[in-house]
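R.M. (postdoc): so does anyone remember the format we settled on? I'll just put the C-alpha cells first.
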C-alpha cells in the first residue's frame, strides 16, 4: 500500500472532523447544523482514488443538464445517486452507482471507509460518502444518459489554497447565494455538498 492509502485507511476508522471540516467549504446559509428530516432520501457517493503516472487521482463527474427537474444537473459531483430498494447496504448502493455511472466494476474497488453524511435540503437527500481505491488504473466508460464527462483530478489539487475561491452563485432565476466557497477544477466550479465532502477528505489527509 502507498502512503496516502495507508493514511486514509487508518484515519477513516477514527473519529472524523465532520461538519467543522465540511463547513469550511459550505455556503454561508449552510454553516449551521441542519438535521435531516425523517423524509430524507438516502443517497450514496464514492470518492474513488486510483494511481496514474505516479500520482493519486480522484474521480469526479459532470452531470448532464437536460432535465429541468434535476436539481443537480450540470454540476460537478462524485459518482453516486439514490439508494435503490435492491441495494442490501449503503456501501452496496455506492458501488453499484459507481459501476453504472463510470463503468468501473464493483469488484475492482475496495472501500476504505466512510466520511460524514451531508444533508442537501434542495433535493432532500442525505448523502453517505464512501472512500474507495481502485486496484489498477480504471478504464472508464461513462453512462451517457446521466454523465456528461468524467474528470480525473490530482488529489493534491484540492490541498493547494490557490484552487479555492469565493463567488456569488445563481442557483435559480430568482435566487443568488452570496459568498459561496468553491474549488476551481479545470475552470469548473465544484461547490455545495461535493466541496464539503472534499473539504473533510482534505482535512483528514493533511
Amino acid at each position: 500500500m502507498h502512503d496516502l492509502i495507508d493514511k486514509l485507511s487508518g484515519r477513516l476508522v477514527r473519529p472524523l472532523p465532520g461538519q467543522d471540516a465540511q463547513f469550511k467549504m459550505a455556503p454561508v446559509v449552510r454553516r449551521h447544523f441542519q438535521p435531516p428530516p425523517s423524509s430524507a432520501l438516502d443517497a450514496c457517493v464514492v470518492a474513488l482514488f486510483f494511481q496514474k503516472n505516479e500520482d493519486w487521482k480522484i474521480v469526479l463527474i459532470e452531470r448532464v443538464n437536460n432535465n429541468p427537474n434535476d436539481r443537480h444537473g450540470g454540476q460537478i459531483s462524485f459518482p453516486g445517486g439514490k439508494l435503490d430498494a435492491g441495494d442490501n447496504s449503503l456501501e452496496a448502493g455506492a458501488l453499484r452507482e459507481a459501476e453504472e455511472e463510470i463503468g468501473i466494476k464493483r469488484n475492482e474497488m475496495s472501500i476504505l471507509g466512510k466520511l460524514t453524511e451531508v444533508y442537501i435540503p434542495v433535493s432532500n437527500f442525505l448523502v453517505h460518502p464512501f472512500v474507495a481505491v481502485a486496484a489498477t488504473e480504471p478504464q472508464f466508460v461513462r453512462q451517457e444518459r446521466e454523465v456528461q464527462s468524467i474528470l480525473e483530478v490530482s488529489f493534491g489539487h484540492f490541498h493547494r489554497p490557490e484552487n479555492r475561491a469565493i463567488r456569488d452563485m445563481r442557483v435559480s432565476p430568482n435566487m443568488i447565494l452570496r459568498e459561496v466557497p468553491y474549488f476551481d477544477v479545470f475552470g469548473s466550479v465544484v461547490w455545495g455538498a461535493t466541496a464539503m465532502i472534499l473539504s473533510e477528505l482534505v482535512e483528514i489527509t493533511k
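R.M.: ...and that's the designed sequence above, right after the C-alpha cells. Also worth knowing: The first helix runs from residue 3 to 11. The two ends are 18 Å apart (CA to CA).
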